[in-house]
Amino acid sequence: MSKEKYFLKLISEENPSIAEKCILKGLSLLEKIYFKIISEKNKKIKKVRVNVPVISVGNITAGGTGKTPCIIQLGEYLQKKGKRVAVLSRGYRGTYEKQGGTVSDGKTIFLNEKEAGDEPCMIAHKLPEVSVYVGKNRIKSAQKAIKNGSEILLLDDGFQYKTLERDKNIVLIDSTNPFGYEHLLPRGLLREPLDELKRADLIILTKVNQVSKERINEVKARILSINSSVTILESLHKPVYFFEIKENAKKIPLEVMKGKKAVLLSGIGNPAAFEKTAKESGLEICKNIAKKDHFSFAYIDIEKAVNEAKIHGADIIVTTEKDAIKLKDIIMKNDVKFPIYSLCIEMKYLEKGEEKIQKYLEELI
Predict the structure, then answer these.
(1) What are the residues whose beta carbons fall under 8 Å from the beta carbon of 317, sequence distance 6 or more?
(2) Is 65 known to sit in a ligand binding site?
């Protein structure tokens, strides 16, 4: 069992052993230190407002909640409305994270996934006419974007980045684990206390199809007890098509792949949710190889996945769009023959949610 899997098992354990209780006590102490650090940091924040609208998309828990599909969808909508859009991302684990850089100017992609990070690079490929900037200092990125003509800014993973004032504060909550085991990091997965949800003006519950309606109602009630005025939308991640990871690949309809045996390979925040989505696409899952979030793949990882696929009699290997960005060069360089596909998903809203989010954005456009 990996360290990450053990950690998640530990903090979610309902009946921990004596040894685990000791570890959890230590984590609780670290949780208090973490809370003190973020509290002191928040006191020192000097907020900056720029002269174009800013929409923040973030979460309150560590791990995958579905921010990237949401950013892509918002970018597409705003672009269709004639706005020049820029996405501001930290560029986590990219070589340009500290110094900052332009991933795309809306015409040309300048940085790869190692330089920009996997998610900004994916956004740049999915939104070729939207500018994408990376860097820890999102104020500098915002100023650069505005100088280059951007009319509206999407702040990726922006809920905790309080320095940049925003006009809209969207928070995504993963329905499969909405409140991060009720504890701050590292005792749980909360990045901030739940009371901070008071700052949100729109909350989107993601992956609602993976839990019961009763559970969704419980989550909504809990949110409204914290923020009674917030709008809550329900969404799911719907599989839409496949891409084989090779040059000049074309979209492959779900029905063509239905019933195929697959080994999953990913380095994302919520691999269990990816497996459920893959099953919804019609695949028969033989094995789920889950690496840590933002994992840097090497050829040996593909070799091992191919071996697992052969052992289990799988027809294909399937990964996420985000991981496909990192895997493509390795696959092409090493001329991997075993068929490897990415499963492409889209965010779908329930109960006229798409109309509601468009109305929510109207005053900015």
Answers:
(1) 262, 263, 264, 265, 305, 306, 309, 338, 339, 340, 341
(2) yes
